[in-house]
Amino acid sequence: MSSQSVARRRGAPPASAVGVASAELVERLDGAVRELVRRDGVDPQRDPGLVRRLAEQVVRGHDERSLTGQVAPVEDVEALVGEIVARVSGLGPLQPYLDDPEVEENCTPQLPRSPGSETAANQTVGVHRGSTQSSQPGG
């Protein structure tokens, strides 16, 4: 089991594959996947599964070439595939949070300000993991 999957189970956000592979490598493989997406006429928003298969093909091809010493090896193939798919089909670094079922978004509508309503108007709720958390001034 990879350290990344252990970290995800413990509630930590997934590490960026850029930490595992050089930014230049990520850019190059991202470009290769985007070229395949354009060539094949794939809509990345409607078919992220196909984008994932294309990313796996590109990353695994690179990793196989690394066995010959032609290119640097990829330390975590799955993390790199996930990052490329998020870049091409999703919302980049925000995508892991959108995919995580434990992350919720709670919004409190902005209440009109009137005398005596300071506490309700200043209450804020944000994106978080687990149960609802709110903060009030002074508390």
Structural description of this entry:
- With 139 residues, this protein is mainly α.
- It folds into two domains: 3-99, no CATH class; 103-135, no CATH class.
- The chain has six helices and four strands, in the order αααααβαβββ.
- The protein has helices at residues 3-9, 23-40, 48-66, 77-89, 95-99, 118-122; strands at 103-104, 124-125, 128-129, 134-135.
- The strands form two sheets. It has a two-stranded antiparallel sheet.
- It is elongated.
- The model is unreliable at 1-15 and 131-135 (pLDDT under 50).
- Residues 92-139 are annotated as: Disordered.
- Residues 107-139 have a biased composition (Polar residues).
Concise account of the structure shown:
The protein has 139 residues and is mainly α. The protein contains six helices and four strands, in the order H-H-H-H-H-E-H-E-E-E. The protein folds into two domains: 97 residues, no CATH class; 33 residues, no CATH class.
Total discrete domains: 2
Provide the low-confidence segments as ranges: 1-15, 131-135
Instruction: Please give the share of residues in helix.
Output: 40-55%
How would you spell out the order of helices and strands?
A: HHHHHEHEEE
* Coarse structural class: mainly alpha
Number of contiguous helices: 6
Sheet with most strands: 2 strands, antiparallel
CA gyration radius, whole angstroms: 20 Å
Number of strands: 4
- The main sheet orders its strands as 1-3
